[in-house]
């Protein structure tokens, strides 16, 4: 019942947020922790969240997967929270909590009725100040990660696509390795390795705390100071990842998946990091090509020519480099090469001609709607504030990112397609049923 009530309260606050500019206040504690506060008193709900600038790419060779392991490990318990009691504490007070990890960051959050604001802040300060990291917890969470890998990757249809993309498009940058890591690396990890990782990355100067919802700003600042100011600053983190050489010749490869019966065609391009303007243009190109039944690839390959069961163009956003992917499943005896050729025909049109004014206006309307929707819940706002600050370096994008999309011209769409989406800069992957050893 408490979870039902909390969900209802979250929904109740949605209408008031819709379409409004997001107000916020941000500042730094002396230890380097960045704090962002967003006040909205339309519903008695509060989100407490912390994003750490650490993800799958932050690893050394032979020690992959630590960021994802920590996503699980730091719910084990702390000096003041008994092992296994974290979720019980949250649920008993009517709350929800979770975490997620990408190649670039790790995000933890709680959603509570607003009278539990102090509890949410205490929990996150405990995670940062007093985590209990021991061999028992590591062993337990290693098994959890292995089971997740089996379910989401090894035994899931098309579950190997992201790892295959990473190893195909990247040769030296850590994006070449899967976010979840290699199981042999986790097995080889020592307690000393894990403790050192925590001491390096889980420090206040590598984090942003966001408190959003039904709060009083002055009272919240006092609580933030009380629970986080004493946490010692860590060493400055220096990242110096190797740069990838440009792809100048088409790459052809095959991958195998024992969990599928229908093969897939994958065409992939290495693209710029998501904070670069060109990445925004690629977002618009992917929407133009495959968002909805009237989009170019869907209408052509699925509706008219009936060559594909499914087709999609995706701009997979990452901090250092992106991946632009065209994925399609053939109908019947349609050859994978046919799907590659037909998709390239549509991309070639983007390189040669300007899209129509009508299609351009449809794109602008779609991005306007998506932008407003992204700020329509307290949870979405908290996540966006953390992301824009931590990964884009500009918190104000929560209100003005749409201006970037508005300013993109039809000429830019053509020029970015020319710059990144050439046949000589792509990888063509045949994703086939079966086991590689059987082929």
Give a short synopsis of this structure.
This protein is an alpha+beta fold.
Topology as H/E string? HHEEEHHEEHHHHHEHEEHHEEHHHHHE
Structural classification:
alpha+beta
CATH superfamily of the largest domain: Metalloenzyme, LuxS/M16 peptidase-like
Q: For the CA atoms, what is the radius of gyration?
A: 23 Å
CA distance, first residue to last residue: 53 Å
Strand order of the largest sheet: 1-2-6-3-5-4
Largest sheet: 6 strands, mixed
> Strand portion, in percent?
15-25%
Shape: globular
Portion in helices: 40-55%
Any idea what the CATH architecture of the largest domain is? 2-Layer Sandwich
| Mean pLDDT reading | 93
What CATH first level of the largest domain would be assigned?
A: Alpha Beta
Domain Peptidase M16 C-terminal: 189-366
Keywords: Hydrolase, Metalloprotease, Protease, Zinc
Protein name: Insulinase family protein
Pfam family, one: Peptidase_M16_C
Structural description of this entry:
45% of the residues lie in helices and 19% in strands. It has 17 helices and 11 strands. It has helices spanning 2-12, 14-17, 66-73, 86-92, 117-129, 135-154, 161-169, 183-188, 191-201, 217-228, 277-290, 296-304, 336-352, 357-374, 378-392, 397-407, 410-420, and strands at residues 25-28, 34-39, 45-52, 96-101, 106-113, 207-213, 251-257, 264-272, 308-316, 321-330, 426-433. The strands form 2 sheets. Strands 1-2-6-3-5-4 form a 6-stranded mixed sheet, sandwiched between helices. Helix 5 (117-129) runs parallel beside helix 10, helix 13 crosses helix 17 and helix 14 (357-374) packs antiparallel against helix 16 (397-407). The model is unreliable at 1-18 (pLDDT under 50).
């Amino acid at each position: 019942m408490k979870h039902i009530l909390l969900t209802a309260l979250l929904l109740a606050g949605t209408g008031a947020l819709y379409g409004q500019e997001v107000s916020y206040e941000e500042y730094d504690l002396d230890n380097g922790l960045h704090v962002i506060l967003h006040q909205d008193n339309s519903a008695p709900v509060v989100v407490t969240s912390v994003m750490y600038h650490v993800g799958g790419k932050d690893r050394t060779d032979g020690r992959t997967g630590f960021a994802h392991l920590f996503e699980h490990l730091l719910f084990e318990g702390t000096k003041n929270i008994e092992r296994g009691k974290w979720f019980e504490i949250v649920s008993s007070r009517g709350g929800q909590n979770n975490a997620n990890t990408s190649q670039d960051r790790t995000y933890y959050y709680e959603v509570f009725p607003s009278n539990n604001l102090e509890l949410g802040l205490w929990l996150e300060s405990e995670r940062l100040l007093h985590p209990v990291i021991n061999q028992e917890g590591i062993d337990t969470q290693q098994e959890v990660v292995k089971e997740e890998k089996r379910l989401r990757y090894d035994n899931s249809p098309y579950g190997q696509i992201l790892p295959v993309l990473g190893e195909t498009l990247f040769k030296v940058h850590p994006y070449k390795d899967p976010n979840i890591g290699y199981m042999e690396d986790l097995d080889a990890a020592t307690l000393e390795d894990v403790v050192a990782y925590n001491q390096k990355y889980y420090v206040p100067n590598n984090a942003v705390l966001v408190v959003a919802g039904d709060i009083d700003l002055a009272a919240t600042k006092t609580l933030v100071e009380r629970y986080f100011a004493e946490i010692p600053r860590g060493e400055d983190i220096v990242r110096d990842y190797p740069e990838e050489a440009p792809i100048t010749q088409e790459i052809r490869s095959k991958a195998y998946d024992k969990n599928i019966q229908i093969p897939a065609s994958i065409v992939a391009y290495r693209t710029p990091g998501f904070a670069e303007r060109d990445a925004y243009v690629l977002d618009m190109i992917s929407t133009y090509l495959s968002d909805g039944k009237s989009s170019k690839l869907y209408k052509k390959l699925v509706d008219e020519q009936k060559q594909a069961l499914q087709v999609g163009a995706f701009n997979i956003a990452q901090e250092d480099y992106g991946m632009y992917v065209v994925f399609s499943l053939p109908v019947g005896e349609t050859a994978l090469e046919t799907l590659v050729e037909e998709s390239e025909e549509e991309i070639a049109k983007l390189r040669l001609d300007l899209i129509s004014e009508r299609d351009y206006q449809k794109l602008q309307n779609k991005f306007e709607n998506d932008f407003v929707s992204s700020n329509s819940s307290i949870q979405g706002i908290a996540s966006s504030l953390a992301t824009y600050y931590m990964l884009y370096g500009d918190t104000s994008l929560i209100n003005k990112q749409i201006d970037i999309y508005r300013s993109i011209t039809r000429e830019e769409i053509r020029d970015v397609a020319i710059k990144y989406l050439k046949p000589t800069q792509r990888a063509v992957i045949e994703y086939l049923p079966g086991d590689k050893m059987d082929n």
